[in-house]
Design goal:
The complex is a heterodimer of chains A (667) and B (233). With 667 residues, chain A is mainly alpha-helical. Among the domains of chain A are: 185 residues, TPP-binding domain (Rossmann fold); 126 residues; 89 residues. Chain A is built from 30 helices and seven strands. Chain A has a seven-stranded parallel beta sheet with strand order 3-4-2-1-5-6-7, covered by helices on one side. In chain A, helix 8 links the parallel strand 5 and strand 6. The longest helix of chain A is centred in the middle third of the chain and has 21 residues. Chain B is mainly alpha-helical. Chain B has two domains: 163 residues, no CATH class; 46 residues. In chain B, 44% of the residues lie in helices and 5% in strands. Classes of the chains: A mainly alpha (667), B mainly alpha (233). At the A-B interface, helix 2, helix 9 and helix 10 of A face helix 4 and helix 5 of B.
Chain lengths: 667, 233
């Protein structure tokens, strides 16, 4: 049967009796899945299939039932049902659901139908309109009510699987529905098995496909009256750009024009996902599921900002294991499956896609990583030119990160492309901020580039970073020491120049002395790592001295402990011990770990690798991964501490276990 | 006369239609009727292929098809239904329907109920109002109405066609004249309908955008590519 025929028939008939099934409240596979998850994790119910939902809800107290189900109402199905009750097109609603969607709907409509909760009169003797709340009622009683009331008017069954409350048997026992029976199936799903024999012309019973509850009820309201209902389409309702969003706004109006329910999806999603970073185990899983659920609901009616949802998942992924991060990033990509049509959103969308692919590339190496970078770049390349400065800046950062992360034969050429993009940005936006970002990229790239390129890039960085602010001076101090690493003939001069910059920065900003000294120490340590023999030891000693001064002057920070540990580790390696140096490196890493769990684990793994303790390497790398602190895969493969382990089956298997995420080949 | 079809197929398209047209209203009553119908069928079969190619080729060039008629108010219940079905296909449709959810059987109701998908969902693809192919409800509307042979055959073999839309080069603001043949009472008439075929010929010569015939410069590269797969009518 087609909807037009049904509406034509109903237009000339008496008011409907509606059986309101679970599909009207938590519609579709996703709604059911979310409720099952809610019942399992938050209410410890043993439920795995949609058919078990009702019993699981029955096991809860009424308050907990409402708490578990209230997030599902109100939607258009409830609003339209309320309108049909208001206009007298529906006489009775028989519902087995526990959510408060109908209550919200009739409240918005401003009507108070009779509500039968425990004592149910025969349908023919009920008030109209009325609602039978049958959730806790036995099958026999429900079936009896329907059988005895079969001829009181036309019937509409919506959102029902036919498996519960003896509904199928009750309907089959009726030889003919004098006023017709209409069963609305769910979209393209087949006729429910329990009622397959029900639909015959003799019985005057009809099956309708191609609708969910909300759209079916909206069609009925339009066909039998006016859509949207007058109580919804208020003058104060703002006009949305898309019909989808307008529909959403209509059912979530507020007197002050703020659409709280929609906004609450957004706020709740962000709040829950931000909080999830501090959780572990089931609590984490529940929070992530809730965050994603809220995003999905928000995006359902406010499409075009999938990048914001992706961004919140990517931020969460920063502190997760590579496997979990990849699961989250896969969802982030799914949120961005449909590029927005609006130009500005499309640019933001492309930039976020590039960031997601860049993050994913941490867990790959070689061509597989390159493919991901390329996908990120492709997204930026096809983005509209609506925000030229922003788009080019994101593109430049992607390329610079790509070059630095992989550090292979292509890196120089890739970074040259980054430079072109940075220059574009500086031309479009000549302010200090983009110039400083470019200078930082040049400095970072110089640390891994060959001597000639490094010196050229550092000169350019020096020209870009002008000023006498502490941040710029700190940058110039590091720049001088990176230059010293590359320019053997001017080492002493550049080290002295760096000292002047750092000292000036400390004078200008004494409260930051600890951090500045720590930064100075780390840069000296890196200089030491590139020298050998006595010269190296001299710089290691200078770095150690600065770390001590930083410790005395500043706060206890993760960066201080971790960097100190790294420098001690390299010095111990350089000198072949002695054991107390290894111990000091270990202690610093352990203190970093105490400040920020997992942050010292990578260095501890390096130390264990030096002593040939494979079990400890594994334990520390796993801990590092568990806290989202592990280095990118390409970094580990380049790390001098692990060179002797590369190729060993247990170590390769460990890397695979840590980084591999089979279900998604993102490239 | 019996060699009309052979001559048409040999390239004398305009000449054959002119001869048929010269017989006036007597064409369909005369002994040449069958031969004329064969030519009309061949012409419209070519026209159908041309139309299908242009819908495809224009989209490949980034052409966004748009309804010529002024957009009406949104059909909100339909929007809800489409959204629900899209959600359903996203969850249940698998990879096969990820890129084109509209071809999923869950959208069978669009055909069953002859519903045109609102333009903002189509993302530039032609809708039902742009192309109602053979078998659509147009054919039934022709019964009992006197039409020129070419027009009747077009609506029977091709259907309603509207190439209205926008493209940065081909139709910048959507203001350029595009081929638009939509069923209506203005088509009533008699005879062979050679002028209708001539208008088709002009439209295909300009890749469905005959407005270019009156403009001094045209997008030669795009036109040449589109014309390369068009059949002469």
């Amino acid at each position: 049967m087609q909807i037009a025929q049904m509406i034509e028939a109903l237009a000339g008939s008496g008011p409907l009796n509606v059986v309101w099934g679970a599909g009207c409240s938590y519609a579709g596979p996703e709604g059911e899945r979310t409720l099952i998850s809610e019942l399992r994790f938050n209410h410890q119910q043993k439920v795995s299939k949609p058919q078990e939902i009702h019993q699981a809800l029955l096991n809860l107290t009424p308050e907990k039932r409402l708490s578990a189900t209230r997030k599902y109402g109100v939607d258009w199905a409830h609003v339209c049902l309320a309108e049909l009750l208001r206009t007298g097109r529906v006489a009775r609603v028989l519902t087995t659901n526990f959510d408060d969607g109908i209550l919200k709907g009739i409240t918005v409509a401003g009507i108070l139908p009779e509500l039968y909760d425990r004592h149910f009169p025969e349908l023919s003797k009920s008030a109209t309109p009325c609602i039978y709340s049958l959730g806790e009622t036995g099958s026999t009683e429900v079936a009896g009510l329907i059988e005895r009331g079969a001829q009181i008017g036309p019937w509409l069954i919506v959102g029902s699987s036919g498996h519960h409350f003896g509904l199928a048997n009750a309907l089959r026992s009726v030889p003919r529905f004098e006023h017709a029976l209409y069963w609305a199936g769910y979209l393209a799903e087949a006729t429910p098995e329990p009622v397959q024999e029900l639909f015959t012309s003799e019985r005057n019973a009809h099956f309708l496909t191609g609708f969910d509850a909300a759209s079916l009820m909206a069609y009925l309201v339009r066909g039998l009256g006016e859509f949207p209902p007058a109580f919804i389409a208020k003058n104060c309702t703002a006009v949305a750009k898309t019909p989808g969003e307008q529909l959403y706004r209509w059912i979530h109006p507020a007197s002050d024009g703020v659409y709280r329910i929609r906004d609450s999806f957004l706020n709740k999603a962000r709040q829950v996902l931000t909080g999830a970073g501090a959780l572990r185990g089931e609590a984490y899983e529940t929070a992530v599921a809730e965050g994603i659920w809220n995003w999905e609901n928000y995006l359902r009616w406010s499409p075009g900002i999938g990048h914001a949802a992706a961004s919140s998942l990517r931020t969460l992924a920063e502190k997760q294991t590579p496997r979990e991060a990849q699961r989250l990033l896969a969802k982030a990509l799914a949120f961005q499956a449909d590029p927005p049509t609006e130009d500005l959103s499309a640019v933001l969308h492309a930039a976020e896609l590039a960031r997601v692919y860049l993050h994913l590339a941490r867990y790959r190496t070689g061509p597989s990583a390159a493919q991901l970078f390329a996908k990120g770049e492709a997204a930026l390349a096809v983005a509209p030119n609506a925000l030229p400065g922003y788009g080019s800046a994101e593109w430049a950062k992607l390329l610079a990160a790509w070059a630095g992360q992989e550090q292979d034969s292509q890196s120089m050429a890739i970074f040259e492309r980054a430079r072109e993009k940075f220059r574009e940005v500086c031309t479009i936006n000549p302010k200090l901020e983009p110039r400083f970002e470019y200078a930082q990229a040049l400095l970072h790239a110089a640390s891994w580039a060959d001597r000639d390129h490094a010196l050229e890039w550092l000169s350019e960085a020096r020209e870009l970073a002008q000023g006498d602010q502490p941040g710029v001076l700190q940058f110039l101090g590091i720049l001088s020491l990176v230059r010293a690493r590359k320019d053997l003939l001017r080492t002493a001069e550049l080290v002295a120049e760096a000292a002047r910059h750092f000292q000036r920065a400390i004078e200008l900003l004494p409260p930051a002395a600890g951090d500045l000294l720590g930064c100075w120490a780390a840069a000296l340590g890196e200089l030491a790592m590139e020298r050998q023999g006595r010269e190296a030891l001299q710089f290691y000693a200078a770095a150690d001295q600065k770390f001590r001064e930083s410790e005395a002057a500043g706060r206890e920070t993760r960066a201080l402990r971790k960097n100190w540990s790294s420098v001690l580790l390299r010095e111990a390696r350089e000198r072949g011990g002695p054991p107390e140096l290894w111990d000091r490196a270990r202690r610093q890493a352990e203190r970093a770990d105490e400040i920020d769990p997992g942050s010292g684990a990578y260095n501890l793994a390096c130390i264990a690798a030096e002593s040939g303790d494979g079990a400890a390497v594994e334990a520390h790398l796993v801990r590092s991964a568990e806290h989202g602190q592990i280095m990118p895969l390409s970094h580990i493969r380049r790390d001098i501490n692990f060179q002797t382990l590369l190729g060993e089956p247990w170590f390769e298997q460990l890397l695979t276990d840590l980084f591999c995420y089979d279900p998604h080949n993102f490239a | 006369m019996s060699d009309w079809l052979q001559r048409y197929q040999a390239g004398e398209c305009a000449e054959v239609w002119a001869e048929m047209d010269s017989l006036g209203v007597d064409l369909l009553k005369s002994s040449h009727r069958k031969a004329a119908e064969k030519v009309a069928l061949e012409t419209m079969e070519r026209g159908r292929k041309n139309v299908l190619w242009l819908f495809d080729g224009l989209q490949q060039l980034g052409y966004c098809f748009r309804d010529s008629a002024e957009p009406g108010p949104p059909d909100y219940p339909l929007e809800l239904r489409i959204q629900a079905t899209l959600d359903y296909v996203r969850v249940k449709g698998g990879k096969k329907y990820a890129t084109d959810p509209w071809s999923h059987p869950a959208f069978a109701w669009l055909d069953d109920e002859d519903i045109d998908v609102p333009e903002h969902h189509r993302k530039g693809r032609p809708g039902r109002s742009q192309f109602r192919p053979l078998g659509a409800k147009t054919a039934a509307a022709l019964e009992g109405i006197e039409l020129p042979l070419s027009v009747r055959c077009w609506f029977e073999r091709v259907g309603s066609v509207d190439f209205g839309g926008t493209h940065p080069v081909l139709n910048r603001a959507g203001e350029g004249e595009a081929l638009r043949i939509v069923w209506g009472p203005e088509w009533v008439g008699s005879g062979a309908g050679a002028d209708f075929v001539a208008s088709l010929r002009l439209a295909f010569q300009w890749a469905g955008l005959p407005g270019w015939s009156r403009r001094p410069e045209n997008p030669e590269r795009e036109m040449a590519w589109l014309r390369s797969k068009l059949l002469p009518v």
